[in-house]
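QUALITY CONTROL LOG
STEP: pairwise intake check
CHECKER ROLE: data steward
CRITERIA: each record must contain a sequence immediately followed by its structure tokens, with no blank fields

ENTRY 1 OF 2
RESULT FIELD BELOW
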Amino acid sequence: MSAQGVEVAPWGPPYLLYLGSAPDDLSIKTARGLAYWRPQWCLGQHRRDDCAVTLGLPDVGLAQSRDNGADTMVIGVANAGGVMSPEMVADTIAALEAGLNVVSGLHHRLNDQAEIVAAARANGRALFDARAPQPGLPVGTGKPRAGRRLLTVGTDCSVGKMYTALALERSLRQRGCPADFRATGQTGILVAGAGIPIDAVVADFISGAAEAISPARGDHGWDLIEGQGSLFHPSFAGVSLGLLHGSQPDALVLCHEPTRRHMRGLADYPIPDLMACMEANLAAARLTNPAVKPVGIALNTSNLPADEAQAACERIGALFGLPCQDPVSMGVEAITDHLIASFGN
């Protein structure tokens, strides 16, 4: 217990970020999110020989990282289904034996793996599953609550919803406006230090979890709620819909990756039309907040040259009559300006 009587987690930074055998940048979004938003926590990366990507951090062995001061290994990969391969299980056990705690955001939980639990106990180390929702979540009520909320939504998975919400939080705080990022995914939870893993919540409780994560507030500030999935993704639309209903968003920002041609992991399903996607999200959100407004478009233009990225933002912004920016390369100040102009400071 801390001096304030608040329980302190038995794991924490400095972190060693585990990339394993990651095949591409999308597969290390958990590690990349931590390295970008909390660089002061990240001591190095641990990669297998066949790993195809890097964070640009020092490559560190498990025992060496512990000697260098690392406290916890974060499994920084996110794969389809959130499974732990035999190699990942073996590396996790090796990390525990090297004296590291282990944190994971995968669906296959550390605490469900008998070998991993035994290794943690034998070495006096802690395990934390970021995708294990807290018990006792309520069923959503749809009852209006005080406060202002913005939800990031997307044309697909992994298009920048978390990054955009965090960038908006930072932008609003720099202007003196109370703002809090509300994490709904494993990476966001590790960055924020709190949250609810929405995609691990039983379906009946998704909207209630969204209500719980963004309770009433009376300080004229904003909750920036991290969106998940897409209403147009056959695998994950249910999570997206529950978030739209439970968040009761006053504002939506649509996130999109303009070079993507089909839904992630589903080659037979094309990326939806942007206008149709925005309208579908607004229609769903109006069930619990009829006054919801779109306030901006966030593009992930990392696969475009700078001139094409700027042209895409100008074209899409003109189409919607809204500010359109890449939060990474352009910031979100125009979106923040429009948000404040639409709702007041």
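ENTRY 2 OF 2
RESULT FIELD BELOW
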Amino acid sequence: MTYTEQCAIVAKEIYQKFDASHDFDHILRVLQNAFEIMEGMEGVNRTAVELAVYLHDIDDPKYSEVTGTSAAALLQGLAVPQDLQELVLAAIESVSFSGGNSKELDSIEGAIVRDADRLDAIGAIGIARTFAYGGAKGRKLYDPTESIRTSMSEYDYRSKKTASITHFHEKLFLLKDLMVTERGKQLAEDRHQFMKQFVKQLEIETGLSL
């Protein structure tokens, strides 16, 4: 059994503890996005990309109380070679949005995983995931009195319990222009426009400016 096959088994068991916004189905969608982005690319360590996709949410602070482990520990447990571990962990480090304070990309593998993950945060599936997470955390659907933050620290981003629609303005609408791979940029365009149409329709139905 390959490292990726073993990792998939371990990861699936862990992600069963997460809510629907970050479950194993999310991982499989990100993996599919990564395959599409990698198509025709040369010089990519595909094993590193796959491992990083499987493990990229393990260390997410939002779920730290349910994982009971870390990506580094899982890689060590699978006896993944040290150089591959380092490449995978570096790719994972670059994924987080963190209020716009993303880590610097230092590998094509990191760029692929980040774009693949961000694609799953936008479009129809991004809308579904946003409200799934908001429901799991008891967040309001929308709050027209809430101010949209254009600059924030990672702590501010994670600590404030904003309404789900506010998340569109503070993160999701920004992702299209943060894509770094050519295929990622192409795939993001339609998804971005769909989200804009959704929020516009929501404003019509509520009579509010959201």
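INTAKE CHECK: passed for both entries
DESCRIPTIVE NOTE, ENTRY 2: The domain at 3-206 is CATH 1.10.3210.50 (Hypothetical protein af1432).
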